Amino acid sequence: MAIQSTGVGSGLDVDGIVSQLMALERRPLDLLATKKADINAKLSAYGSLKSVLATLQSASSSLAGAQKFLAVKAAYSDASIATASAVAPAAAGSYAVEVQQLAQAQKLKSAAFASTSTSLGEGTITIEFGGYSGGAFSLNADKAALTVTIAPGQDSLAAVRDALNAAGAGISAGIVNDGSGQRLVLTSTDSGAANSLRISVDDADGNDTDAAGLSRLAYDAAAGGTMRLAETVAAQDALVDIDGIAVVSASNTLSGAIEGVTLNLVKAAPGTVSTLTVARDVESAKAAVDAFVKGYNDAAKALKSLSAYDANTKTAGALQGDSTLISVQTRLRSVLSAAVDFSGGYASLSELGIAFQKDGSLLADATKLRAALADTSKDAASAFAAIGTATDSLVKYSSASASAAAGDYALQVTQLATRGQAAGSAPAALTITAGVNDGLQVAVDGVAQTVTLAAGTYTATSLAAMLQTRITGVEATESGGILTLTSKAWGSTSTVAITGGNAAADLFGTAASTAGVNAAGSIGGVAATGAGRQLTGKGLTVTIEGGATGARGTLRFSRGAADRVNSLIDGLLDDTIAARTDGIGQSLKSMDLQKARLEARMESVEKRLRAQFIALDNMMASMNGTSSFLSQQLANLPKIGSGN
After folding, report:
1. Which of 146, 237, 255, 348 has the greatest CB tally within 10 Å of its CB?
2. What are the extents of the domains in the chain?
3. Could you tell me the pTM of the whole model?
């Protein structure tokens, strides 16, 4: 293409003319850019609005349940003897406590060996837990036995110690040099009389009870048992007197003696009576309420700034006059001003000392709020949280969806949940022989398990206890010598089946398996969905812990202010604001397409204008050339009247 230089021959400023004309043509594009910048600012403002609401929701969600209002605290008068803590549903009160004895774990020691490399011999070591009484050993049904294999070349004192520790058998093993030699020291991981040790061996030398080989680690303190290890510390329970009631605990942490209260025993102090005090934790609940009030005030301030007009800069907030923002402000204030549904003695937040000020902020009167939270005759939780209370003590409120409405709901139970089980058909054989009838295969809740039983002679009760320690997820019981395995789970997914093993027939005969069933019934007259012991209907979930079929009273459900704010924000974020931002996003995409079309048109217009003015420039240049030529020719013509 030839290089063109416009305006040289004509003096016409083609570039300037085209630029000015294009500036006029680009005005729609400039207006579009301004509009897009405004919409982007609005989209950014909606992002800030979502962040503000999310922060408020975080503060409100902590009060949407009753836990914060059920908080309690406990104090023990002599921290050198014990410390205490409490959680709901611990009741306020005072208790006289005497710590008479601490729980302790059993310790055993071996004979002295020459060095840590001394060989103990090959074989297996089986560790069981239970209690010794009257010359007999009773298995602890809650603790599984474990067998540890001592392999060839791995039978030194140090290697045996390491194998026991690596097995996670419920004991810790160490080696102590007491001057006479190296001793293996075994300590039960858990304290308590029922966590005493019984250690049996299968010695590769063929003799499991002598003072040679692996037999040197055998320990059975029952009558006639083999005791090659010596006891250095006896297993014992903690003994505590609470208000004249004797309490026995396997651990120095007592968590069941007083509902919701945990006592951590530090030392025994027989004859010393201390005071345990349990009280409602008002300050914890108040802190949560204060955080909610602050969360609302911060949100209200941020919402106001998004719609405010700055007189100094003469600029309006990105969402000034925005209908969505105005709706959010109105609905939030309305929720907090509304009466409480089925209140526990409080009709509104103002009765707890929380009220709106002239500037639209909330203010909590600390004195009035503390008094309301401490008042046990009323339920401050219902003013804030979603609360469900059943008239039947064996029906527990579990949860509610956003669709659940406040009200009273009739409860009807047509079927109680059950657990799956496998029941034997004949009394179990009480002698277990290794390799003969010591293997059992079961499936519990659909999960297959293979277990090996410890050889020995049992009672039906001790045999059931051993099965429970070996099989995960079941309770083993016996009646008339017949064994039954019952799943710990509830409902239709709860199953137990005896699937094989050389001990199956000896222990269970022809076992009959029965699957569990889910609870069934209705809530508020509408059929509920059962899952285990839970029933869900009308947006509410309750747990049926027992009782009978038929009418089971009513469930009163209410929604407090914090729960309603939480639900409102869920709806705003998921629906209202999401729809608004989606609409803005679509507008921006449309503008991008419009901008692309305008820019393509501008390019075409500029090409056309430039071509037209270049043609005009060329034509004027040609005409100027012709004019110059004619002027020259005319100048050279003989002048009229000349002598030539």
Report:
1. 237
2. 14-59+564-632, 72-103+238-280, 107-233, 389-417+519-559, 421-514
3. 0.69
